[in-house]
Task: inverse folding
C-alpha cells in the first residue's frame, strides 16, 4: 500500500546558515584540512574533504594532479586502462593518497579493479559506484570487495536512505555516497520519479552513518560554494562535485569552438552520450537518465579551486568555526523563501 511522508524534505536552496558570534579575525585562520579514521579499514585520512566526481570529464588524472596539490580528492572514472593507471602512478606517486580507483558491479569490474590494485599497492581507496545502490547485488559486491581487500578504504553508493547507509557500512563500506537525482546533468527524477531532496538526505544519512561509526559523501546538488558549506554543515564528511568542476582544462570530453568561443561537452554517466561512447548504444531495456550539455570553457581549474576554498573559509568565519571539521557543530539552518536578490538577473555560474 502506498503512503505519503508528510514531513517536508529540503534541498540546499531551501535554507541558509544562521550567522553566529565569532572570535576569528581573518579567513586565513580557518583550517580546512580534516583528519578522520575509517571504521573498517582503520586507515586515517588527512586532507580537504572535497572530491571530484567519478564522471568521465571530471574524474581524470589531470584533475587529480591539480586537486591533489591543494589536498583535495578525485574519484577516478572507471574507463582508464591498467596501463594508463600504471603511467599515472609512476609519474604522480604523490597523488595516490588523494585518489580512488572506481568500479561498477557489472561483468569484468571486479577483475579490472583487482588488476589495478595488485599492480599499484600504494592505492588505498576503492570506490564502488552505481546509479542505484539500493539493490541487493550491490550490497553483495561490496561484501566481496571487502573480503578481498580488508585493509583498503571502501566508498560505496549512491543511496539516499539511512537504512541503506547502515547496511552498506555494516557490509564493509567505510564511506557511503549519498545522493539520488540531484546532479546537474542527471535526469533520474524526471525519468523515474525517484529521488530525495539532498539536504534532508545528507542530514538523515549522516546521522545514521555516524551512529555506526561510518562516514558519508554528499554527492550531487551543489550549484555554488554555499551549497558545499551547507552539505558540510548538515554533517557530510566529504562533498563530491561534478558540474562545478566541469569545463576546465583538466577535464576530459570534447572541446568545440563556435563563433570564436570555446565550449566543453559535459554529460551524465547514465546519459545517451555516455552509453553510446562506452557501450555502443543505449540498451533497449533501459532509458537514459542523464543529459549532455555544452558549457563555456573555463580554462585552468586552479581559480575555481581557490574560489571554493575561499568561500568555505568565509563560511567558517561567519559561524565561528576555527576548523572545517567544527562547521557541523556550529551550523543552525533557517528556512527561507529566497536566497539572492534577483534584480540584476542570476549570478555568474562560478
Result:
Amino acid at each position: 500500500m502506498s503512503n505519503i511522508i508528510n514531513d517536508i524534505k529540503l534541498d540546499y536552496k531551501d535554507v541558509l546558515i544562521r550567522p553566529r558570534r565569532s572570535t576569528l579575525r581573518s579567513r586565513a585562520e580557518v583550517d580546512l584540512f580534516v583528519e578522520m579514521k575509517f571504521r573498517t579499514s582503520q586507515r586515517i585520512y588527512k586532507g580537504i574533504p572535497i572530491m571530484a566526481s567519478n564522471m568521465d570529464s571530471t574524474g581524470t588524472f589531470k584533475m587529480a594532479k591539480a586537486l591533489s596539490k591543494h589536498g583535495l580528492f578525485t574519484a577516478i572514472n572507471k574507463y582508464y586502462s591498467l596501463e594508463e593507471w600504471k603511467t599515472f602512478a609512476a609519474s604522480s606517486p604523490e597523488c595516490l593518497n588523494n585518489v580512488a580507483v572506481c568500479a561498477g558491479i557489472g561483468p569484468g569490474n571486479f577483475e579490472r579493479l583487482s588488476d589495478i590494485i595488485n599492480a599499484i599497492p600504494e592505492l588505498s581507496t576503492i570506490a564502488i559506484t552505481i546509479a542505484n545502490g539500493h539493490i541487493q547485488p550491490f550490497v553483495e559486491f561490496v561484501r566481496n570487495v571487502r573480503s578481498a581487500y580488508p585493509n583498503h578504504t571502501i566508498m560505496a553508493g549512491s543511496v539516499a536512505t539511512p537504512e541503506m547507509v547502515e547496511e552498506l557500512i555494516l557490509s564493509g563500506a567505510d564511506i557511503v555516497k549519498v545522493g539520488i537525482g540531484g546532479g546537474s546533468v542527471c535526469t533520474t527524477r524526471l525519468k523515474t520519479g525517484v529521488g530525495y531532496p539532498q539536504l534532508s538526505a545528507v542530514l538523515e544519512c549522516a546521522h545514521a552513518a555516524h551512529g555506526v561509526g561510518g562516514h558519508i559523501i554528499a554527492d550531487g546538488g551543489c550549484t555554488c560554494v554555499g551549497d558545499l558549506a551547507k552539505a558540510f554543515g548538515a554533517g557530510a564528511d566529504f562533498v563530491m562535485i561534478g558540474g562545478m568542476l566541469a569545463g576546465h582544462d583538466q577535464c576530459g570530453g570534447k572541446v568545440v569552438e563556435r563563433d570564436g568561443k570555446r565550449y566543453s561537452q559535459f554529460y551524465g554517466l547514465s546519459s545517451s552520450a555516455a552509453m553510446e561512447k562506452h557501450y555502443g548504444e543505449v540498451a533497449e531495456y533501459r532509458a537514459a537518465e542523464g543529459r549532455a550539455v555544452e558549457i563555456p570553457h573555463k580554462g585552468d581549474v586552479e581559480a575555481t579551486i581557490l574560489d571554493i576554498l575561499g568561500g568555505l573559509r568565509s563560511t567558517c568565519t561567519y559561524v565561528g568555526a576555527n576548523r572545517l571539521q567544527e562547521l557541523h557543530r556550529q551550523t543552525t539552518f533557517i528556512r527561507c523563501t529566497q536566497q539572492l536578490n534577483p534584480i540584476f538577473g542570476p549570478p555568474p555560474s562560478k
